[in-house]
Amino acid sequence: MRRPGSPAVRPSPARRAGSPVAATILTATLTGGLWTQEVVDTFAFGGQLDAFGIQPRDPDSLVHVLSAPFLHAGFAHLMANTVPLAVLTFMSAVRGVGRFLVATLLIVLVGGGLVWLFGRGNSTHLGASALVFGYLAYLLGVGWWERTPAALGMAAVAFILYGGALWGVLPGNPVVSWEAHLFGFLAGLLAAALLHRKRPPLPGRAPLR
Questions:
Q1: CA nearest neighbour of 163 among 132, 142, 192, 186
Q2: Between 16 and 165, whose confidence is greater?
Q3: pLDDT for 46-103, tens place per residue?
Q4: Which residue, 31, 49, 115, 150, shows the most beta carbons closer than 10 Å to its own?
Q5: How far apart are CA 2 and CA 208, in angstroms?
Q6: How far is CA 80 from CA 85, 96, 128, 129, 138, in A?
């Protein structure tokens, strides 16, 4: 029995799970938007929108970190990214739409910013593979930081499906932006750490069990 005047202790509410419906809508919106953009770019602009990719260390190109992940150098490039992007987008968003959107912003800004700083000069970097590698890293990082059955299960599935793509963070094909892969991946890990790492309890306040 609680003594009169003593504070009540209530368990914190369970973390709200993500919605599969919302994750599906986000996935369809993102992939549908990419295809719409590529159709418009190809048939209305003749591919000129690709100029809004990242040109490393070009001051006028810095703002292109916001557009580069949503542009593609033709339909073959877009098709190669569509399925892994859709799968990893859904898996990331279903765990929580709000944190997914924040993670996406971090991947775009941090990953793109690093490409702008350290990418090969005299080149244009664009494509959703930066998001693909970012979401893959995000899921792996969430598994590491949370270590719950759901998080570990998602991380395992993501690694089984796309772990082989991690070789893409190394220099190889000269027409492939391994820099976008690498820095997108690092940005995804950063997003997982910032959004899912457990914080220590405040001084003098013991954690509830």
A1: 132
A2: 165
A3: 999 999 999 999 999 999 999 999 999 999 999 999 999 999 999 999 989 999 999 9
A4: 115
A5: 17
A6: 9, 26, 10, 9, 20
φ, ψ for residue 75, nearest 5 deg: -70, -30
- Would the pLDDT of 15 be above 70? no
What does the angle CA 95 – CA 154 – CA 26 come to, to the nearest 5 degrees? 40
**Coil vs helix vs strand at 77:** helix
User: What are the tens digits of pLDDT across the range 153-179?
Assistant: 999 999 999 999 999 999 988 899 999
* Residue 62, Cβ density class (10 Å: 0-12 exposed, 13-18 middle, ≥19 buried): middle
Q: What's the one-letter identity of residue 93? A: A
Report the predicted TM-score, pTM, of the whole model to 2 decimal places: 0.87
**What DSSP letter does each residue of 158-186 carry, written as one string?**
HHHHHGGGGGGGSS--TTS-HHHHHHHHH
Enumerate domains of the chain plus CATH numbers.
20-196 (1.20.1540.10)
Mean pLDDT of the 200-206 span: 55
Q: Is 56 helix (H, G, I), strand (E, B) or coil?
A: coil
Amino acid, res. 73: A
Query: Which whole-number Å values give the CA distances from 78 to 113, 131, 158, 171, 197, in the listed order?
Result: 22, 13, 20, 21, 33
